[in-house]
Design a protein that fits this description.
Elements (H helix, E strand, L loop, with lengths): L7 H7 L1 H9 L19 H5 L3 E6 L1 H18 L3 E5 H4 L10 E7 L5 H12 L3 E6 L5 H5 L2 E4 L12 H21 L4 H23 L1 H11 L4 E6 L2 H17 L2 E6 L16 E6 L5 H12 L4 E7 L11 E5 L7 H19 L18
Parallel strand pairs: 1-2, 1-3, 3-4, 4-5, 6-7, 6-8, 8-9, 9-10
Bound molecules: fructose -6-phosphate.
The site of fructose -6-phosphate has 16 residues, from helix 4 and helix 11.
Amino acid sequence: EKGGYEHFMIKEIMEQPKAIRDTLTGRLPDSGFEVNLDGINITKEDLQKLNKIFIVACGTAYHAGIVGKHVIEKLTRIPVEVDIASEFRYRDPIVDENTLTIVISQSGETIDTLVAMREAKARGSRTLGIVNVVGSSIAREVDDCLYTWAGPEIAVASTKAYTTQLICLYLIALDFATKLGTISYEEFANIRDEIKRLAEKVEYVLTHKENIQKYASEHFNAKDIFYLGRGLDFAVAMEGSLKLKEISYIHSEAYAAGELKHGTIALIEDGTFVIALATQEKLFEKMVSNIKEVKSRGAVVLSVAQEGNTDIENVSDHVLYIPRTLDILAPVLTVVPLQLFAYYTAVQRGCDVDKPRNLAKSVTVE
Ligand code: F6R
């Protein structure tokens, strides 16, 4: 059932190209100026009355939501707020009939997300679910449901659910933007064509997994690991850090790279391992400066950048390249080496990768 792999987690990491293709099937026509979102019946008029979108989720799904915020805001100019489900519900959020609440959940059974969704609904908000498990509680209760076609995710650490959640968020952003007229055909076609190349690019990253295994074998004894990034790379840093913590039990922090100098840089000392994400073209130079700041304090830096940005080699100890893509789509590629790094590190440390201590696949207590 593990298809020849040692663990479900690595099997599911390797299944991501297929999961991405399945999630795209039938939804993004090769031509035309539209997206076909089965399960979503939100019209132009519905969108025009929205003054805000909330994205509410937990853990990895929450991290996908942060990427979603950037992308939806960029393409539709509707303000998006992202919230942790267990916080949302208890802080009297400003939600009404002019709000759309998007909830993201692999299992569709996470109680924090489910009750947050009910709360939003009770306040008059339309609710849209991005869900993996067909017929789950959240899928049944939301007004509109877009399924991720990731297939069953067995490992506790979420991987292919995350990448397919990102795909659904891109599709939703494109759908809303075409309906609202906030995107040109050229921009739409460019993003569409690049989305269609993502599965193949993920495959390419996966064929280089032995490099990442090597870094893991060099750093698996680290006491703590910092993940730095700006913009969408910061969102991916949070996900990479969570993956590492939950399965390898190494303490780790994700930090907005520009924020480090406001305090946390005090924790960087000789030999501290830092994973620096520098995939965002617009922020590349700023990121290079931040890498220099940690290098000068003795950090050992593994950087991730888009192919061709070889300047990064001057400031890093190791560099991993991802195939070139649009900045907004880079998270789908950037997260893959981080999943692999967490996986190989946990294996090296002899951890129970698929069933990490104290965690359950679906959290049904508040
Ligand atoms: C992390 C992880 C958890 C889940 C979270 C939400 O790898 O698996 O953080 O992402 O508990 O679960 P779902 O998506 O089922 O609502």
